[in-house]
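Many introductory courses stop at the sequence. We go one step further.
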Amino acid sequence: MTRQIIGELRAAAMEDPQNSSRIRQLQTSLAQLGNEVIEELHSLLNDSFLRVGEAAADVLVLIASKEAYDALLNYALDHLHDRAGRTKFPGPGWIRLRELGKHVLPAMARHYDSSLPLDTRLAMIFIAQQIGDPSAQPLIHRALSEPDSRVVEAAGEALGSIDGPDAWAMSEASDDWETRQQCSCSSTRWSRPPILLSLRGEPLEATKN
């Protein structure tokens, strides 16, 4: 029965995306199954058609469990940007994380890791800053402990935005800032990725060293 509903949801999202009542009915039916349906939603989340993945992501939002937010975050991080490269503006994943607000911040903190690509880490920090809720602090403090001065600068800016301009100076992570600046990372001045510059209204030429 679950696979049948998933198939119907994909068909509905593909054939008639304007039929919101039918899509919502199918999404609600799947969400009522809770965590047990998350694994089976992966096929939709990875679908090549964006609106199918978005329909599945909406089911995760309705489930709203820890496991659902973890899966939702993975989906969003894969869709932070326009995959077609037609624009530097935020992709559906970025927009979704902003809309979820503080509810997704615990998942972001759980998944933030220095092994992630630099652009992904900077995007997570900036999204947390945009959300502006104190529950972003665990993610930001993890970023402050990184050796890369570009990440530390972004995290310090986010912390100051959330906790006030003196927050970074008062944090323990700032004690070794001078040392960080002298490390090998300091040879590369932190440049915001183009997507961050476009969101701030800065010229894209600013990405050039």
